[in-house]
Specification:
UDP N-Acetylglucosamine Acyltransferase, domain 1; single chain; Udp-n-acetylmuramoylalanyl-d-glutamate--2,6- Diaminopimelate Ligase, Chain: A, domain 1; 3 domains; 39 strands
C-alpha cells in the first residue's frame, strides 16, 4: 500500500514539515534509508543519519530542530518510536490473513472452529477444543483436548498446547513454545523420585505474546496464570502454579520456580532467576543475571548474583546492606588517624 506524508500525519495526528504529497510504500532503518520508504529518529545517537538518509519520510519528535537542510519530509509527533509502532501495527493488520483448513491438517469431530479460522498443514486440533474467530494456526501446531483459544490469535509453527489449557483473545505464541507441559513435581522416597501428577492447567489472558521456545508448565492443582498484556521473550521457563501480573515483561532466559507470584508492570532482564514460593512486588525492576531468593517490595530495583559456599554467602548477605555505613565509618576513622599522626608529628 502507498501512503502520502499527509495521510500518515493525519493518522498519527502529527505535523508535516516538507512535501505533504511525497509517497512511501515500505519501512527502513534511518542509516539504510531508501527512496520510497519511511523511517524514524528517536535515539539522538542516530541524528547524523537524518542528513544523509535516502528515505522520503522521517518520523521525528516534536522538539527536533535540524542543524542544516534536510532532504526528506518530516512528520513531527510527540513520540516517534511510539508512532512508528502504530504504523507498523496498521501495516501488519492490512495484510490478508489465511483462512480455512489446509490439506494434511486434522480437526477432531468434536472440536469447534470459529469463523475465519485457519489450520495449517500437519496441525492437529484435538477433541473438544474450541478455536475463536479469525485465529491462525500454522503448520505443525498441536492443540490438545479441551483447549480453548480465543479470537484473533496467532500460533506459529510448532507450538504445542497441552490439554485443558486456556488462551485468551489476541495472543501471539511463537514457534516451539510449549504451553501446559507437566510441572517439575516429585516426591523422594529414599533414593527414588516419585512423580506427582500435575492435574491443573495454564490460563493465558488477553493480549499476551510468548516468545519462541518458551515453556509454561501446567499447575499441580489449579492454574498457572499469565495475566493480560504480559510480554515474554524467547527461551523463558515459567514453572507450575506461578502467576505473572498484568503487563509484566521478561527478557530471554528468565527462569521462574514454582508457585512464585510476579506483580503487575514488572520488568525482568535477561537470565534472571527467581526462586520458588516468593512474591515480586508490582513495578519491580530486576537487572540481568540477578538471582532472587526472597520477596521484593513494590517499586523495587535490584540486581546481582554470585555463587559462593552457602554459609559464607549467608554471613556475607547480612553484611552487604551495612557496607555503606561501614564505608562512612572507615572514612571517618582514616581522617581521624591522619589528624592524630599530624598532631603527633608536630609535637616531635
Amino acid at each position: 500500500m502507498v501512503f502520502t506524508a499527509r495521510q500518515i500525519a493525519d493518522f498519527l495526528r502529527g505535523e508535516v514539515v516538507g512535501n505533504p504529497d511525497v509517497t512511501v510504500s515500505d519501512f527502513s532503518k534511518i542509516e539504510e534509508g531508501k527512496t520510497g520508504t519511511l523511517t524514524f529518529l528517536a535515539n539522538p545517537k542516530y541524528t547524523a543519519y537524518i542528513y544523509t538518509t535516502e528515505a522520503d519520510i522521517v518520523l521525528v519528535n516534536n522538539d527536533f530542530v535540524p542543524d542544516k537542510p534536510i532532504k526528506p519530509t518530516l512528520v513531527k509527533v510527540p513520540n516517534a518510536y511510539k508512532a512508528l509502532a502504530s504504523l507498523l501495527e496498521m501495516a501488519n493488520a492490512s495484510k490478508p490473513r489465511k483462512a480455512g483448513q489446509e490439506a494434511m491438517s486434522a480437526v477432531a469431530p468434536s472440536a469447534r472452529l470459529g469463523e475465519g479460522v485457519h489450520v495449517g498443514a500437519f496441525a492437529y486440533v484435538d477433541e473438544n477444543a474450541a478455536i475463536g474467530d479469525r485465529t491462525v494456526i500454522y503448520p505443525q501446531v498441536y492443540i490438545g483436548e479441551n483447549v480453548k483459544v480465543g479470537k484473533d490469535c496467532i500460533l506459529y509453527p510448532g507450538v504445542k498446547v497441552y490439554r485443558d489449557c486456556v488462551i485468551g483473545d489476541r495472543c501471539i505464541i511463537h514457534s516451539g513454545a510449549v504451553i501446559g507441559a507437566d510441572g517439575f513435581g516429585y516426591t523422594k522416597d529414599r533414593e527414588r523420585y516419585h512423580k506427582i501428577p500435575q492435574v491443573g492447567n495454564v490460563v493465558i489472558e488477553e493480549d499476551v505474546e510468548i516468545g519462541a521456545n518458551t515453556t509454561i508448565d501446567r499447575a499441580a492443582m489449579g492454574s498457572t496464570v499469565i495475566r493480560r498484556g504480559v510480554k515474554l521473550d524467547n527461551l523463558i521457563q515459567i514453572a507450575h502454579n506461578c502467576e505473572i501480573g498484568e503487563h509484566t515483561a521478561m527478557a530471554a532466559q528468565v527462569g521462574i520456580a514454582g508457585s512464585t507470584k510476579i506483580g503487575e508492570h514488572c520488568v525482568l532482564a535477561g537470565q534472571v532467576g527467581i526462586g520458588g514460593h516468593i512474591t515480586i512486588g508490582k513495578n519491580s525492576r530486576i537487572g540481568a543475571q540477578s538471582g532472587i531468593i526472597s520477596n521484593t517490595k513494590e517499586d523495587s530495583e535490584v540486581m546481582g548474583s554470585f555463587a559462593i559456599p552457602l554459609k559464607t554467602f549467608l554471613r556475607s548477605n547480612i553484611i552487604i546492606p551495612k557496607l555503606p555505613d561501614m564505608y562512612k565509618q572507615l572514612t571517618a576513622l582514616e581522617r581521624e588517624v591522619a589528624r592524630l599522626k599530624e598532631k603527633l608529628g608536630g609535637e616531635e
